[in-house]
Amino acid sequence: GTGMGLPAAVRERVAAVHRGSTLPERLRFYDVWAARYEQDVAALEYRAPHLAAASLAFAFPAPLAGARLLDVACGTGLVAWELHRRGFRCLHGVDGSSGMLERARSTGLYQELRLCVLGREPLPAPAEHYDAVTVVGALSEGQVPSTVLPELLRVTKPGGFLCLTTRSNPSNLRYKAELEAALGQLERSGAWQKLLAQEVEYWERATTEEESTQGTGYISGVVYIYQKCPVPQLEEG
């Protein structure tokens, strides 16, 4: 039962990105991985982009087409495809890897794409600029630190939505606990309110037996939706 039915090369590439390498090494790795990334995540049955977009669309007041969204750590544009399918049309993306951004640009789904290493530098956007901000897949051990949450909030309009995901596999549990502590702290301070924290059992295929949830061959994950305060009051009458 090694490898959970995944090709060894896919397992190796996925493991490499979660290993504690330095940030420049990891970004170079993503640059190289960009060409094979979508095939690899298809092999993983990676459901986060679909689940996150569905949750956000559900939370969102219609109409969606005019809403301005920032897709943080956008990668090759998997989240943009899912958002576009659900009626979102004004999509901006940032990523730390120029190789990934090149692929995202070729989708034609983004109005704007910028290079930005989150955690190292601020987002290239003014305050209260976006109706929604998504961070799908990047909030995990060795990737984007949970200290970026205030920066995500800064660029979100009051009443706007933040859609975040993380993994619940054993090697990410310490990070997940830190993330949830930071999420809770911002909620208690009145910065945002939690609308959803959805645990999903079959998030993606596990790359090792140790990571798999109770021998299912999959790891679990979670989708969070927050709404930035103050939430606009509905007009009377």
TrEMBL record:
Originating organism: Sinosuthora webbiana
A UniProt-annotated Pfam family: Methyltransf_25
UniProt lineage: Eukaryota, Metazoa, Chordata, Craniata, Vertebrata
Name recorded for this polypeptide: MET27 protein
Domain of life: Eukaryota
Occurrences of domain Methyltransferase (ranges): 70-160
PANTHER family in the cross-refs: METHYLTRANSFERASE, METHYLTRANSFERASE-LIKE PROTEIN 27
